[in-house]
Amino acid sequence: MSAREWIGKDFYRELGVSSDASQDEIKKAYRKLARENHPDANPGNPEAEQKFKAVSEAYGVLSDADKRKEYDEARSLFGSGSPGGFGFPGAGGPGGAPGQGGFDFGDIFGQGGAAAGGGTGFGGLGDMLGNLFGRRGGGEPTAARGQRGADVETDVRIDFAEAVKGATLPLRLSSPASCATCGGNGARPGTQPRTCPTCQGAGLVNRSQGAFAFSEPCRDCRGRGTIIDDPCPECHGDGISTRTRTLTVRIPAGVDDNQRIRLAGQGEPGRGGATAGDLYVRVHVNPHPVFGRSGNDLTISLPVEFTELVLGSTVTVPTLDSKVSLKVPSGTANGRVLRVRGKGIAKRDGSQGDLLVTLQVVIPAKVDSKAKAALENYAETVAKHDPRPEITALLRDRGA
């Protein structure tokens, strides 16, 4: 995309957010629109495919703090992006007439600062505009700069055991990618783009309007610096087409629910030879029917009988891949947590979690006559024992 097209687009409107939206709001809006318009969810719908490309492009700019800042500053400076409509003062008035210190856009673009006094003047704007229009801070035209590809985000869902131990998964994506037919240069196979004769490959042309002198993207090549005479039939000269590809994604052991995994260079391809964006895989972990997780530790609630806590016992506890025997000391309180070392989550950094076993007494809904008689006999035996002395003392003080 040319610089003029970039400035003229309203990326905030594409995502349906305000210009002061937070990064979380931008991300939430992008994920919603990307899911709604994904080619897999809308097969044969060209409008949804175009919308998917548009929101991906908008997110690629607005999700990057530096790109967003340049975009906001450029739109603030240029308005709609059309040349000649910038709203700067005219040639009249002090300093406006030729030969009386007339105003030259070259000063803003970083061309006149050094000559005026050795300083850079509005060097920040010069650098910013250089990034947008393929010019250096000193104002010398260069070959049109490429644009880094947008980052892409997708979601995968895995089982609890896969999150703990790690897994290798195939990931099928339908997303913009470098056109396989033309290799990304936009020209029909067997042909090559040619250097634009108007701008000599710079992507920029100089223009004067009264006392003003400025540069703008070349209209013949739309700021690309090259012209494609015979466009690729697959991508129609864009160099990018939507295609389905399968990647192998390695999920590291110990990944958390909602964690993102970055695959460098697997996002949208860059333009003009620039690097591709990154692919972010957001992992969603299905809950386990028995185990839970606390950091690197696995957790489990183990039902036990009252007698097992009072008299002590040895219980068998499952782990994710085997079982262990656990000794319960006599007189153990209900709800006590016992630790089994080294049976938790092992991460790549060498850290090793434990298995935390919470003992939970199970109260039977019904008991047979023999069990009832034994319980009544037990109740008579411990009748003089007060299990709640503090509460009894408080009630006594209140005259209960």
TrEMBL record:
The keyword Zinc applies. GO terms for cellular component: cytoplasm. InterPro entries: DnaJ, DnaJ_C, DnaJ_domain, HSP40/DnaJ_pept-bd, HSP_DnaJ_Cys-rich_dom, HSP_DnaJ_Cys-rich_dom_sf, J_dom_sf. Keywords: Chaperone, Cytoplasm, DNA replication, Metal-binding, Repeat, Stress response, Zinc, Zinc-finger. Its cofactor is Zn(2+). One of its GO terms (molecular function) is zinc ion binding. It is found in: Cytoplasm. CXXCXGXG motif repeats lie at residues 179-186, 196-203, 218-225, 232-239. Participates actively in the response to hyperosmotic and heat shock by preventing the aggregation of stress-denatured proteins and by disaggregating proteins, also in an autonomous, DnaK-independent fashion. Unfolded proteins bind initially to DnaJ; upon interaction with the DnaJ-bound protein, DnaK hydrolyzes its bound ATP, resulting in the formation of a stable complex. GrpE releases ADP from DnaK; ATP binding to DnaK triggers the release of the substrate protein, thus completing the reaction cycle. Belongs to the DnaJ family. This is Chaperone protein DnaJ. It comes from Prauserella marina. The gene is dnaJ.
